[in-house]
Design goal:
alpha/beta, UDP N-Acetylglucosamine Acyltransferase, domain 1, six-stranded mixed β-sheet, 6 helices, 15 strands, 45% helix, elongated
């Protein structure tokens, strides 16, 4: 009981707890802003597992910051059991954070997330450091940094201590292992960068990090290039076959002419 009383007193005395509620309100408003299916704050607060995961994270992170790391991990794991979303309490997450649909999201200990970031289901912000000699990795940066305004589509894997720049997009199922510049879209395995033609649209919210209109799909571009090259090759093959057939006809004609000349010469010598 003494420990519990100390904790309640500490919570009441510490002004940081007020920031937790401010952040949760900002998160709640962000869900309403970005999800057209959300009709009220009450609906989001009661029914949205993504928001529930953010609530558990805010509480566990507060505990983690105040030295109650074991309790913070307990709260984090409890939230994982209830929501299917795992956010390490050591991660740093800014205001207006949205996890839409959410199931399967994993955010590692040293991940850093800016303001107005949106993640969809099955996203992983993971590390690539080997599990051996884990003691040497304590306190090191192992997970990615997502700057403000980033949107990550479902199934995307962002791995290692890399940075995804402000207002960048990561497409569904992309695997990102290198830095992504601000304002671009990364798609594919491994991820490739798409440069938007209209830079003024970089900050617009796009559900599931879909590619803006007018921005070419790099895979489609490669396929189109391959089709064009195959068309050129087919045309060249047709030209070569035509030249070959003409050469064969010319050789046959020359052979017949030579044979005729040889036959005429023989007749003349006999006469």
């Amino acid at each position: 009981m003494g420990r519990e009383r100390w904790f309640v007193r500490k919570l009441g005395e510490d002004k940081d707890y007020a920031m937790v509620f401010k952040r949760l309100k900002a998160d709640l408003d962000a869900f309403l802003e970005r999800d057209p299916a959300a009709r009220s704050r009450l609906e989001v607060a009661v029914l949205y597992q993504g928001y529930h995961a953010v609530v558990y994270y805010r509480l566990s992170h507060w505990l983690w910051q105040h030295g109650l790391k074991f309790i913070g991990r307990m709260v984090s794991q409890f939230g994982r059991l209830l929501t299917g979303i795992e956010i390490h309490p050591g991660a740093l997450i800014g205001n207006g954070f949205v996890i839409d649909h959410g199931t399967g999201v994993v955010i590692g200990e040293t991940a850093e997330i800016g303001d107005r970031v949106t993640l969809y289901h099955d996203v992983t912000l993971g590390g690539v450091a080997p599990s051996v000699d884990s003691a040497a990795q304590v306190g090191t940066k192992r997970h990615p940094t997502l700057e403000s305004g980033v949107i990550v589509g479902s199934g995307a894997q962002i791995l290692g201590p890399i940075t995804v720049g402000e207002d960048a997009r990561v497409g569904a199922n992309a695997v990102v292992t290198q830095d992504v510049p601000a304002g671009v879209t990364a798609v594919g395995i491994p991820a490739r960068i798409i440069m938007p033609r209209d830079r003024s649209k970089c900050g617009e919210f796009r559900a599931y990090a879909t590619t803006p209109e007018g921005v070419p799909d790099p895979v489609q571009m490669v396929l189109d290039q391959m089709r064009a090259q195959m068309g050129e090759m087919q045309s060249r093959i047709t030209e070569l076959e035509t030249e070959r057939d003409a050469l064969k006809k010319s050789r046959k004609k020359n052979k017949r002419d030579n044979d005729d000349d040889a036959g005429t010469g023989k007749k003349s010598s006999v006469a």
